[in-house]
Amino acid sequence: MISHKKYMELALKLAERGKGYTSPNPMVGSVVVKRGKVIGIGWHKKCGEAHAEVCALKEAGKKAKDGIMYVNLEPCSHWGRTPPCTQKIIEAGIREVIIGMADPNPVVDGFQELKFRGIKTKIGILSEKAKKLNEPYIKWMKSKKPLVVVKAAMSLDGRIATRTGDSKYITSKEARKFVHEIRAGYDAVMVGINTVIKDNPQLTVRLTKGRNPIKIVLDSKLKIGPNANVVKNEPTKLIIATTKKAPKAKIKKLQQKGVHVLVINTKNARVDLAELMAELGKREICSIMIEGGAELNAEAIKAGVVDKILIFISPKLIGEGLAALGDLGITKIDKSIKLKSLDYRKIGKDILIEGYL
Q1: Residue 53 annotated as catalytic
Q2: Residue 223 to residue 130: CA distance in whole angstroms
């Protein structure tokens, strides 16, 4: 009896190797098996490059005939940046294709195409893991808006800084390194102008390997200075979301440095976050991690743009200080926001809680 799950697990692990490089395409891994032996593996390395199925078939060569292919996402059946994978699978003589999940892209119909061409096809193996891996792609493909995650690090009593504003460092080295690892997997990281002025963050992945995400700064009056780290380092990877209150001369200066300045309408005298997310989605930004302060965290949740929360809790007590969240307007406990699909894990001395809104 063939263990479909075993080979699908391998396909998922291979897919993850493309994290941070495939967007707006999904992460896909593929395995070709024959007589219980893996004869070809592949993964989508970068947007525009060969798909996972093509890479796995290339490695398998002529041995692929009468083999079984495992792939975590339904193979494409249309011409896009690359030719359709279904045609390559048929030409290679694969006899069976095991798929993790259907592709939410409406032009993809690989499952039915393969069945129609007489190839035995099964879908839904480890589908929940497959969906979790590609949740940014699924959200963007269905709504053309990015998956938005709020990340916060706080003490056991819910503080992200002391009453004097000191916040370095609440969490352990292990947790900070882990944040850089997950940051590398997001298309963009977002902060407010107050965080830029107070902390002057770099918003890079310097503690780990990977590519630096796009930096997004919310700055309704364009207060940002030319010597801010986010402006000096890789200005072409900086997006500033501002409003009509921004001085036009300053917009021009920033644009000359290579900074992308988006003038967005206001809501409650701030950048309209819903409009901003739609604009970023048009630019093929599929995932954003918000790493701002209490005010931005609360504004994003109230605007209804947040999908997921990541909170690191450090075993420290601070007492009076800055809370992780600003005012959400909740006055009754039974009206509080309840997270779903909770997951907990220990990282160094800290606890990471992950949940969905």
Answers
A1: yes
A2: 42
